[in-house]
Amino acid sequence: MALTADLEWRVHAVLSRSRANGPGARFVVWTQGCSLQCAGCFNPGTHAATAPAAHTVRDIVAQALAEPDLDGVTVTGGEPLEQPEALGMFLSYVAAAGRGSVVLSGFTRREITANARRRAAVVDADMIITGRYNATLRLASGLRGSANQRYWSRTGRYDAAMFDAVPEAEVLIDSQGTMTVTGVAGPVLPMKEPR
């Protein structure tokens, strides 16, 4: 199958602007589907492989790049690397637009580099936070949920120290009164489904 921007991407939700999901103001994508099943995961609604609606990489790229004055994008989940082609395509468009990218993955660096599809997916990622969430090592700091998770700076655009100032959580209330709580401090409440 040839990869195009019309490639389907199972996305749980997006958030057009967040400061608790990486350095600066960021567009955030929560992918749908995770087979890792980390005990104590605070996004269990993202585990099932089926998404509420189908989206294309093009849809999500258009939303991300339409947001003005962003420092970059963050892709989390679910497990982004369980849809490697869609993730890789999204990251390539983000990089081409000059925006930075952060990916949170439960896979370790070794598991990513040992698998050709995962390795190809992160070619354009600036920073990857790797490792399964471990509730007994809970940290909730620097965008890491637990102390075993590692920063993997791939391009030098971001370094680990830049994540020290990322808040553990933020509470956002939109014009309709919908509250969203996001970050690594606890459960994620209702988010906006992609258009």
Automatic annotation (TrEMBL):
Cofactor(s) the record lists: [4Fe-4S] cluster
Keyword terms: 4Fe-4S, Iron, Iron-sulfur, Metal-binding, S-adenosyl-L-methionine
Name recorded for this polypeptide: Radical SAM protein
Ranges in a coiled coil: none
Record-level Gene Ontology MF annotations: 4 iron, 4 sulfur cluster binding; metal ion binding; ribonucleoside-diphosphate reductase activity, thioredoxin disulfide as acceptor
Keyword Cell membrane included in the entry's annotation: no
SUPFAM superfamilies: Radical SAM enzymes
Entry-linked InterPro entries: Aldolase_TIM (IPR013785), Organic_radical-activating (IPR034457), rSAM (IPR007197), rSAM_sf (IPR058240)
Pfam family, one: Fer4_12
The keyword Transmembrane belongs to this UniProt entry's keyword annotation: no
